[in-house]
Amino acid sequence: MTPVNWAAFGTAAPVLATTAQARFGAHRHHVLATLRKDGSPRTCGIEVRFLGGELWLGMMPGSVKALDLRRDPRFCLQANPGAGTDMGGGDVRIGGRAYEVEDGETRAAYVKEVEPPQPFHLFRTELTEVVRTYVEDDTYLVTQVWRPGEPVRTLKRT
Question: Angle CA(119)–CA(124)–CA(129) in degrees, nearest 5?
Answer without folding.
Answer: 140
